[in-house]
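Lab notebook, bench 4. We co-purified these components, and the gel suggests they stay together. Before we commit to crystallization screens, I want a quick structural picture of the whole thing.
Request: model the full complex, all chains together.
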Amino acid sequence: MTGLLSAVTISAPTVDYRQLGPVIIVLGMAVVSVLVEAFLPLKARRPTQVFLVFVALVAAFWWTVRLAGTSQLAAEGAVAVDGPGLVFQGLVLLTSIVAAFLIGERSVDPAGDAFTARASALPGTEDERQFSRKGWSQTEIWPLYLFCVGGMLLFVIANDLLMLFIALEVMSLPLYLFAGLARRRRLLSQEAAMKYFLLGAFSSAILLYGAAMLYGFAGTVEYAGIAEAMAGQAAPNGLLIAGMVLVAIGLLFKVAAVPFHQWAPDVYQGSPTPITAFMAVVVKIAAFGALFRFMYVALGGLRWDWRPMFWVIAILTMLVGAIFALTQTDMKRMLAYSSITHAGFLLIAVLATDQSGLSGAMIYLLAYAAATLGGFAVVTLVRDSGGEATHLSSWAGLGKRAPWLAAAYALFLLSFAGIPLTAGFIGKFAVFNAGIQGDAAPVVVVAAVASAIAAFFYLRVIVLMFFTDPSPDGPEVMVPSAFTGSVIGAGVVLTVLVGILPQPFIQLAEQASIFIR
Amino acid sequence: MTSFPWLTVIGAVPLVGAVVLMLLPKGAAQAAKIVALLFSLVALGLVVALALQFNPDSAETFQFTEQHEWIKSFGISYALGVDGISLVLIALSAILVPLVIIGGWNDADSARGSVKAYFAWMLVLETLMIGVFAALDVFLFYVFFEAMLVPMYFLIGRYGGAQRSYAAIKFLLYSLLGGLLMLAALIGLYVVSGRELGEGTFNFEVLTQLNIDPGTQKFLFLGFFIAFAIKAPLWPFHTWLPDAAAEAPPSSAILLIGVLDKVGTFGMLRYCLPLFPAASQYYTPVILVMCVVGILYGALLAIGQTDIKRLIAYTSLSHFGFIALGIFAMTSQAQAGSAFYMVNHGFSTAALFLVAAFLMTRRGSSLISDFGGVGRVAPLLAGFFLVAGLSSLALPGMSSFVSEFLVLVGTFERYQVAAILATLGIVLAALYILWLYQRTMTGPVIDSCRSMSDLKAREVVAVAPLFVLIIGLGVFPQVALGVINPAVERTMTSVGASDPPPTVAAPVSAEGGR
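Here is the predicted assembly.
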């Protein structure tokens, strides 16, 4: 008996915690943040939480920068700390720091921040009014925020299917809650949360189902193992193809690619605007990070089978996003469709299946993040008595009333439209370049047409802001406080900087575009 | 070459002017105009200095070259330089901007946007126009090409007439669609260069050395050509032009038709032909048909217009047909004629549009039927209008005659039918110009024109230099042709085209075209 036991030596898994530093900092701080929520008095919670969140995010970012140049598997192959992983982590952290400024903003709405005072109070009841009057706020958003960001940090370095799924759940659950926490138009917000939760749960289940199939095929959940198992196959295997499609669907749901985009407009519109910005930017970055790794590392050998599928999805995503955006009358919905279109452009980078695709996507995401965060920050400032005035017509003549703010917004829109000398153009160029390098010229031509369609609705907003007269009972434009103001400022600076001097950014992206397998 | 970065400095002057304008205090409209004029005059002075140093017989293709790495990863550099063709077009831009600032002194006064922003946009536009003609990196060219849309969009959309936002959007979307197709082709070209050379580049001179497979060329050519054909515009891509020209304030409309649209024809000559010689030859028949249809269709529509601005816009459609016809006729005379035509058309349209603008502001209308007998009350205005019109219809003695003649002779050498049909355009030109003159200037003075004042000193200052240039270049075309010819010959060589042998008599050389 004893002899039998000693024959099998069980080695303890070795985990190099330094390489997981960013994830550990953020998730560890999330736990601290929960304790703060439990033990600190009501008044002290908010400042403490905001402080802790920024400390954690900045420290994690600093750690990520220190890890630069690392390229190895960690935690027994469950995660891969490599160039792309670190760049995506860095992007997630940077953008979530900026988004945290928007979430922490409480001076643009006279009633407080963008979140409901008590999520449990029924909309429109006396309870709700009382909570609001007392100036309570739902400080639980902060620990949730850290959990969400921590999940995303893990999502982009996940190197096996289980880790992918766990990270997906850690990042998704807080998002479902966030969506329902809006202070204004709460029913719309709760509806959004419900839709997002149901569809999100479905997509998670689909992803898990696919993961199970891939496990059935390869006998391992590790990406490298799947790639290896595939290399031994002569003909494509049914389990493999089905598993690939299902996992890809789960990921494409998160990036809001057509036809898995239906949730996006409703959720973007209903969620509190800072959260919409967070979802449109940070979640998209994380999802693309995971999608790239899965498609390239695990399924790179199968690219001739999945590329046609991505051709169709990319073309559909670009065209549907652009065409539906034309008919929108609500600013947030329009930005939602616009973000769908951008997901389509990014899919071109995915189907390029080479380094230029990956580095192109990084540049594109940076440009998109700068304009989107800045754009949503502007949206939070245009308000009437009912909260944000998101109907397009209320933006008429904004250029007269708040010329600088309107000019910043116009810059973001021009960047979305891909006009040269803005970051958006460089991103578009990098992605188109990857597409043509990857023999997907027809998709790029469709992308050119889709960009022209998309330009129309961006320009329409510029026309509204600058070429039409303001209506007398139009919305009020809040003076941006330091928080929102710095978000807009950062967006403008980055949009112009990447637009004019992109070389350092491109170089960084190119250096960091090799996955470890 | 000199190490002084002439082209960068010339391009930067208006941009600095635009920044200075924006820093002026609110309401300083008068000061803004003067500052704008000063900066544009400084730029003009520098361009004159540049032109005087230009050596037409230089062995180098491009002079005053500058090159700095910009985006190394994509083989993009900030490369500038001029040959004869781009030099005359830069000169055209630099001459027109101060003149339209003087001529359009009050264009922005009653508009909703601020006066200083109007002139600041105009100066930004000048920077971009100089950049687009001077760029030697195809990517840099594209950046200027697209960025030019933004100032023009705001000039039309904020300061234009009643239908301004419709016109501005139509203009921008049309151009953007073409531009994006060109972007795809541009990247395709880059990828091809990467496959052929090992490392991709956007350097124009390197790209012309490539040996691109004809099948690929056809696709890439289309991407570039459609963008240029929309920009120029050629029939049937022209529908944005009348709207944009009619709604834009006159001074912007002049820059739009006079310079911006030239970028399209310049692009065909500079980029389409040398980069894609085989495809250019392949598509020539189709393009010639487009040109001839454009010449006749534009002229016929011009005859039918009731609005002066739209009439001028349609005459331009006809003229752009001539320019493109000359480019694709692939003879040195025709191409030299086209390059010269670009400049002359800029001057004569500017003159016609400016005088027409003076006329229209006096009456507050642009409908032909609202005018009559103006010649009696404002003889100077009428006289200028006639001269500008005659320049537009290419009367011998005017510079436009030289270029139109060269284009037709050069085209006739190779494509007789096209040349003969195009000649009909001249007849129609006489019709639309003279009939316009007759209806507005002659006959009994109608009541609403009775109190019309004649040209003021400022207005004379704005148009007189144009007439000097039109007549001067008509008498001494060699000044411009001597600069243009070497550049055209190089283009011809790179396309691999040579002039057809004379069939009847010795061909008239480009120099002796008059």
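Chain B touches chain A at residues 69-74, 112-113, 142-144, 146-147, 149-150, 153-154, 157-158, 164-165, 168-169, 172-173, 176-177, 180-181, 183-184, 187-188, 190-191, 194, 219 (CB under 8 Å). Worth comparing against the SEC data before the next meeting. Residues 63 and 82 of chain B are 5 Å apart (CA to CA).
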